[in-house]
Amino acid sequence: MKQNFYIPFLLFLIISLKTFASDPGRNYGCVIQGYPAKLYFSYSKDGNPYNWGPNNNTSNGLYHIYNNNSSNYEIYNDTQADGYHCGVINSKFGEYHQVGEVCFVSSGGSYLQGDLATYSVHNPTYCGTNSLPIDNYAVILLVLMGGGGFFYIRKHGVGFFDLTSEVK
């Protein structure tokens, strides 16, 4: 009976690892040039829009596709302006660098071609630390909570979910 518990857990783990395997990573996004240029950072999937040919920069030959239905950052390109602008990517301060790889942004059934880039935003030196999202610490919180839960269950059992106890 205990083995049946592990099967869904293992399936979930395998699916989760597959989901994150193709994601280019944190602080990557797709830059669409225009006025103003925008960086889309919500990764959607890997694919080959319009059968564009293989991508020689990735192991699977596919392109990174981002979603335009989410938030994005403007890229502030004015190198003559004074000061730092919070809430946007400041190219004057070196906050984004193109990787040299093509990416796409899905837009209502069609795709916009862009350039894959790394980025940073909300420099705490200029904007303070209140603008940093808690997402940066989510992994640490999950590990701590998971570890605490593991030791709690190991010591106290799982109560009415305990598969080893008999029904009375």
List keywords for this structure.
3 helices; alpha+beta; 168 residues
Give the number of helices: 3
Distance between the termini: 17 Å
Query: How much strand content do the residues show?
Result: 25-35%
Shape field: flat
Helical content class: 25-40%
Neighbour order of strands in the largest sheet? 3-4-7-8-1-2-5-6
Please report the total strand number as a whole number.
8
How does the helix and strand content classify structurally?
A: alpha+beta
Q: What would you note in describing this structure?
A:
Helices cover 26% and strands 29% of the residues. With 168 residues, the protein is of the alpha+beta class. It has a domain at 27-127. The longest helix has 20 residues, at 2-21. The relative contact order is 0.15.
